[in-house]
Every structure is written in structure tokens, then in C-alpha cells.
DNA sequence: CGGTCATTTAACCCTCCCGTTAATTAACGG
DNA sequence: CCGTTAATTAACGGGAGGGTTAAATGACCG
């Protein structure tokens, strides 16, 4: 699980972390501010932040004793870029057309 | 980790599973066909398929002793829909503009 | 300097994930 | 039937993930 995309998806696979990202979309925040809505300990939040930072989804800056986190959406762009390859499968119409074309192609030879 | 989105992202967080999806984009395939490119045992593949099925990313049909898998991209649409909320952060220009507007707003009052 | 606040690290659980091999189920074909 | 092929289930092990509490770090402040 050492590849970049896996790390990104794994980071997103936790509701707490996604909620943290949602919060950061409204602006930077410190660890305690981020922890406030959740019913889990501060060390747990601290680790979630480390996971997000590791995935490149946030960056962190320290000023005095506060460390504020900042949303970095670049990895999300990478993730959607990967999914983009499958976009044609989302469209029912395309799927039906595609199946139809495949059937034709198999009947030909 | 019971929510739908988490299950989807978790399923995508494995390179083998993403490779299986890529293979299925070219058409249905049986378990042994899907296992062929990988250096892992058949039971392992079988479980990966169960994870993908659980996430709704594939559907399966049985004909005789073969069980073929079929790509279902619906969940990918859901996942990108979630990420879509952050699209504005991908664009550097927007980010700079956004920061600028925020600065203005803070200077006002 | 001593206290206090913000955050991280350490140490420890427990559960889930990914892999293995061995055994089991299911269906076909002589 | 029996053997073969396809796939899953069972049982196990190692390691990662998410949580906890207690202790350590770092920076402000009186």
C-alpha cells in the first residue's frame, strides 16, 4: 500500500477525516478547534491529521503553540483524475450503447 | 466505518482492487481470469472481489461453474460527487482569489 | 522560574485487513 | 459415479489502523 493513490484513498476512507476536510474547507483551524465536534480524544485527532498530512491533503503551520491545518486539495484532483477513466460507465445511456456496440462486434466475425 | 462512502474509498485504497477494476473496464471476466496478472493466491482475489462487490463496484453473475464480474461504476460517481465539493480548491487561481477576498473581508470590519 | 495551554509521543488494546494453505462446495463431462 | 475445474470457506499469522490514558514537549505568561 505504498503507492500515492492508495494513501489518498485510505485517508479518505474514514468519516472523521472527511469531516475534518469539510471543516477545513471553511478555513484553517487548530487541532483543538478541529477536535471540538468529535467525541474522541485529542491524540486520536492528532493522528488523523498526520494521516491527512501524509496523504498531502492538508499542510500545517505552527505559530506559537498552535498548529493550524490548511486544506490542500491537490490529491483530490489526482483521485478524481483516476476515476475519470470510468466516467463513461456512469452514464446508463453510454453503457447501453457500449453493450450494443460490443454485441455487434461479436456478431460480425 | 459503516457509511457507504467509507466503504467505497476503502475498496479503492488497494492497488490490486484498482487493477481489477481497470481490467473489468475492458469487459466481464471470471475469477481466474482476473487473478492471472497477479502473484497472489486465488482465495485472496476472491476476497478482493467480495470487497468490491460489497462496495457496489462490481456485480457478479454465475453461469455453470464460472462466476464472472462486471464493473459497476455508480459508486465512483458518488465518490467524485463528494470530491466535487472541493474542486474550487484545486484551481490555484481560485485559491489566490479566495485568499484575496478573505483578506479584504477581514480588513473591512 | 513556575504554571498553564496546545499538541504530540509512548505504550497499550482490540479489531480489521491481507496474505497464506488446506479443505469444501458446486457444476460440468466422460 | 468419478474426476476435474472453478471458486469459496475455514483457520491461521502478521501487521496496520483507530481508539484509549499517561507522559513528554514546546511556547506563552505572570
From TrEMBL, chains A, B:
Pfam families: HTH_20
Matching SUPFAM superfamilies: Winged helix' DNA-binding domain (SSF46785)
Spans through the membrane: none
Record InterPro entries: ArsR-like_HTH, HTH_ArsR_DNA-bd_dom, WH-like_DNA-bd_sf, WH_DNA-bd_sf
GO molecular function: DNA-binding transcription factor activity
Ranges where the HTH arsR-type domain occurs: 1-91
Protein known as: Transcriptional regulator
Organism the protein comes from: Actinoplanes cyaneus
Amino acid at each position: 500500500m505504498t503507492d500515492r493513490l492508495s494513501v489518498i484513498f485510505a485517508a479518505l476512507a474514514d468519516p472523521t477525516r472527511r469531516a475534518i476536510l469539510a471543516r477545513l474547507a471553511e478555513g484553517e483551524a487548530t487541532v483543538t478547534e478541529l477536535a471540538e465536534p468529535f467525541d474522541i480524544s485529542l491524540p486520536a485527532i492528532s493522528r488523523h491529521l498526520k494521516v491527512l498530512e501524509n496523504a498531502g491533503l492538508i499542510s500545517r503551520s505552527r505559530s506559537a503553540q498552535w498548529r493550524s491545518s490548511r486544506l490542500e486539495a491537490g490529491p483530490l484532483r489526482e483521485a478524481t483524475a483516476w476515476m475519470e477513466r470510468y466516467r463513461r460507465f456512469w452514464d446508463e445511456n453510454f453503457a447501453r450503447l457500449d453493450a450494443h456496440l460490443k454485441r455487434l462486434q461479436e456478431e460480425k466475425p
